[in-house]
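Below is how a single chain appears once it has passed through the pipeline. First comes the sequence as given, then the structure the pipeline wrote out for it. We keep one example in the README because the format questions we get most often are answered faster by looking than by reading.
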Amino acid sequence: MANATIKDVAREAGVSIATVSRVLNKSASVKPELVSKVNDAIEQLGYYPNSIARTLKSDSSKTVGFVVSDISNDFFTVMVRSVEDVLNRRGYNLFVCSTDSSQDREREYLCLLREKQVDGIIINISTFVQCCAYSAGQAAQPIISINLGAGQSSRIRETLRYALCSTAVFGIFWTVLSMAFPNLYVYIFMKPSTEILEIAPSIIRTYSSSFLLLPLNIFSAYYFQAIMKPRTAFAVSIFRGCIISGILIIALPVLTGADSIWFAMLATEIVTAVYATGKILRFTKELPARTAQ
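Resulting structure:
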């Protein structure tokens, strides 16, 4: 049996094709009795709208992609549910992609979402900054660990200076780039509408202000591990990633309004940086006084 078409629905309901189209698009201009007739015809005929054709005609797929690192994580599960509720109220569907923290899978999903012509993609743009911070930490950690074992504190301090300079450069670069060209991220992942281009800059600028301290905080965990301070490294990671940001993401919208959620990461990075900087100064001062031979 051939699939029912919009013409078949219009004929069955005794209305025009334009009326069926307005009902499908949930237009408020259609009389309730006509909406009832069209819905009855759709159910009777088993009609399913052609989403591809509707996208080409309206230039909107009514779908938003959400790229997360691990959907089994309770934090992302709650976030996905919240985002889906908001989108559904506005007539949008959510397409969730879990990358399992794989950059290859992330690239594949981004390509897939663009091919699907979704109206928008939700992704953590701080991934770019985090990669730079990870590189600084991974480069410095083995050097610091070896020199700690050898008792070469001067080399540890020298490596620390280079690493801190690198994290400062990364933080300044990404913060300035985001402030100057906020819509650059938008164009990377999607073909934005005028509405998105209007609201995105303020959101991205607010969120990306946290980039100034983010590299320092990520590097600090590597440093604490290298100098055998696992509890401090654990505290930085857990408090930054779960406790502080998690509490603020939930509390700020309730206390000061929905838009304040974009300040959650900035507040998180500031609190973490104060703690991490204090510990770096203390532990570095406590290093043995022996110098390089």
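The chain has a mean pLDDT of 81.

See the next section for the split statistics.
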